[in-house]
Amino acid sequence: MTDYTEMWKGLGLNLDKHEQLLNALGTIYADIYLSQKDRPQGMGYFDFVMSEVHGLRIRELLDHKEKGGKVVGTFCLYVPDEIILAAGGVSVGLCGGAQFSVPDAETVLPRNLCPLIKSFFGFKLSLVCPYFEAADFVVGETTCDGKKKVWELLDNYLPTYVMEIPQMKRGIDKNLWFQEIKAFAEKMEKEAGVKITPEILEEKIKLVNKKRKAIGRVFEARKATPVPISGKDALLIAQIAFYDDPERFTAKVNELCEELEERIIEEKGVVDRSTPRILVAGCPMAIPNWKLHHVVENSGGVVVCEESCVGTRYFTNTVEEGCPTTEGKLRAIAERYLKINCSCFTPNDERIEQIIQYCKDYNAAGVIHYTLQFCHTYKLEFVRVREALDKAGIPVLEIETDYSEGDAGQLKTRVEAFIEQISM
Ligand code: BJ8
Predict the structure, then answer these.
(1) How far away, in angstroms, is 145 Cα from ligand 1 center?
(2) Chain segment 325-372, per-residue pLDDT in tens
(3) What's the CA gap between 257 and 229, in Å, rounded?
(4) 398 contact partners, CB below 8 Å, separation of at least 6
(5) HSE-CB for 231 with a 13 A CA cutoff
(6) Rounded distance, CA 214 to CA 45, Å?
(7) CA–CA gap between residue 114 and residue 291 (Å, rounded)
């Protein structure tokens, strides 16, 4: 094992706290991931990435900075990777999935706030996240109210650029969004001191498209019965997509897919073919939030699809390739990103239609709608999601939770009862 202490010291991490975090993460990972049976061999790469989560990848980011490149922290699917990459930057989705940093965040933020926001803010306050410390600046966005206001506070600790995301998808909203995309490209050019040429932008559009298609291929494999990969492993892949090197990640995901496709031919699953198949819909699960998947897969079910930003919302739709000018390419980027169906938009009918369609595509016996505590948009949108699922005759369980283990027992009881209900 390489010793990265000097690197972490150089980044200004709180070494004692950081060690506690890594120890806790190592134990949780071994319990939740390494204990699984019949995992595809291709998951070995993702286990390796996790074992080096604060090591090798951080070293790569620092090497990139030494060569003059920028590291940009992001928190939302609407921030376009293609533009960051085209300006010679590296984009890292910053973690916000751990209870570890929540108490520190609550010394500044109100307690009745979404745990995802408290978690990432707490990581910055506690000086335990090397990605945060390696980032030159972060990009926030005007999605939910909590995030929108937290950027003003985060800016006290790290330069925070905010993109305005419209909340509707009319013609005027599309124009506003295109202007925002253009402004972001200019911001990246200024920060990185480079000009984004149409050639380089085209190259990065293709790179990110390939990455999305590779993740889509994993999801395609999950439609099979018996399912060749666990929901936990598929979730991990989608989480790692946010910070791994895109080219290497894509190659490794495609390698894994070849194995999954062979498993499908051999009818080799990670669980029995009669295992109830669950679709999880709702709030994103930032790394290392594996709580719900672990409960489901320890209660006799298997997760076959996430209608989530660590799932279908990430890979659905690609950016049109081959537009001749930079302006045309930026327009294509704007169009693709505005097709993401986040509950921060109104109306958001397409998301509801998609959930129903995914249930059919993935042959799901039921839906677990996952809401993080105090996330009003997903919570409210669930009223309409439930109506649509009831109408379609698809059973649904609503879970509202945070990152603590306080409700673990209650959660397990409810999930077990739901799985029993849909197995009948
Ligand atoms: S595109 S889902 S990543 S905004 S932070 S909305 S959980 S209260 S993360 Fe999101 Fe972009 Fe939409 Fe996806 Fe709710 Fe929490 Fe807000 Fe959240």
Answers:
(1) 10
(2) 999 999 999 999 999 999 999 999 999 999 999 999 999 999 999 999
(3) 10
(4) 368, 369, 371, 382, 386
(5) 30
(6) 15
(7) 16
